[in-house]
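Inverse folding, one chain.
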């Protein structure tokens, strides 16, 4: 498959040598991988949010012109193993999500490892989520109607932020977790079965996890949400997984833990696809199907919140 060949080119060394590519080389390759069509929206603008170590860059997408009333919001956290990626890499998906779900999307440019190891990324993500909840007028967001979403390492951050919100009493409407990293153990059957040749290489993600985690406790729930002691009361969730993905089992285990804690959650696995399919509807029909499913789930959460508000 051409897609898997391209993914391999991001991680295998060039020029016939045996050295691992540097982080800088991998960032350069991933940034040029897949040109996509970007949907036009009435408002797309870059802004910053105060964070614990300075300003956090955020790209705001709005599917209606400014001044036409508040909308619900999704704070989106990109993937890339906490080491690669940025707002540009999920720009097309965020535009599509804003248009289809009828919401503001805040695409977060959190700090990356190894320059900024844990907990820098989760701290930046928290800064943006808490700002959206506590300062809705700044973003023309409907008060109380903020969800969090992310893919891969971004799904890890979204799950971590949802647990921080629970711990700190910050109301979140929903958590959309797309093939999230939920543990640090790296020992599930899917890790062993799909560790090489399926896009997301187990060795590469283990390397990235080491760069991000540093010397932090591997059981810290901000790193490993699956190891949180109690998920009771967390935001309702949607978990999307890919059959041929090393992260499949831990993501599905997290969905089961949410359900066991009484958290409303829906898990959907897409068969015959690999990691990254959600962001590549041009290549995977299942990517478009998964986006439609995610939009339905978010719209249902937004509609429930609106009905509750009108009944109050």
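Residues assigned per position:
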């Amino acid at each position: 498959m051409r897609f898997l060949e391209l993914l391999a080119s991001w991680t295998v060394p060039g020029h016939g040598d045996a050295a691992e590519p540097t982080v800088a080389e991998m960032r350069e390759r991933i940034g040029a991988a897949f040109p996509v069509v970007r949907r036009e929206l009435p408002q797309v603008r870059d802004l910053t949010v105060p964070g614990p170590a300075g300003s956090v860059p955020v790209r705001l997408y709005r599917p209606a012109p400014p001044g036409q009333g508040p909308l619900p919001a999704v704070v989106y956290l990109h993937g890339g193993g906490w080491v690669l990626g940025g707002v540009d890499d999920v720009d097309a998906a965020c535009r599509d999500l804003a248009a289809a779900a009828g919401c503001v999307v805040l695409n977060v440019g959190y700090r990356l490892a190894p320059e900024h190891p844990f907990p820098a990324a989760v701290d930046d993500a928290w800064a943006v989520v808490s700002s959206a909840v506590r300062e809705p007028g700044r973003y023309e967001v409907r008060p109380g109607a903020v969800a969090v979403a992310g893919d891969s390492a971004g799904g890890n951050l979204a799950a971590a932020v949802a647990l921080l919100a629970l711990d700190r009493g910050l109301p979140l409407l929903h958590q959309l977790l797309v093939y999230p990293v939920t543990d640090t153990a790296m020992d599930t059957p899917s890790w062993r079965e799909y560790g090489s040749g399926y896009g997301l290489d187990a060795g590469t993600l283990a390397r990235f996890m080491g760069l991000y985690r540093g010397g932090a406790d591997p059981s810290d729930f901000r790193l490993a949400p699956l190891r949180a002691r109690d998920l009771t009361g967390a935001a309702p969730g949607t978990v999307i997984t890919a059959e041929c993905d090393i992260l499949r089992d831990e993501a599905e285990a997290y969905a089961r833990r949410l359900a066991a804690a009484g958290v409303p959650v829906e898990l959907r696995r897409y068969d015959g696809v690999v990691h990254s399919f959600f962001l590549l509807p041009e290549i995977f029909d299942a990517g478009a199907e998964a986006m439609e499913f995610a939009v339905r789930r978010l719209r249902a959460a937004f509609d429930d919140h609106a009905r509750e508000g009108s009944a109050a």
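The longest helix spans residues 285-311. The chain has one domain: 2-311.
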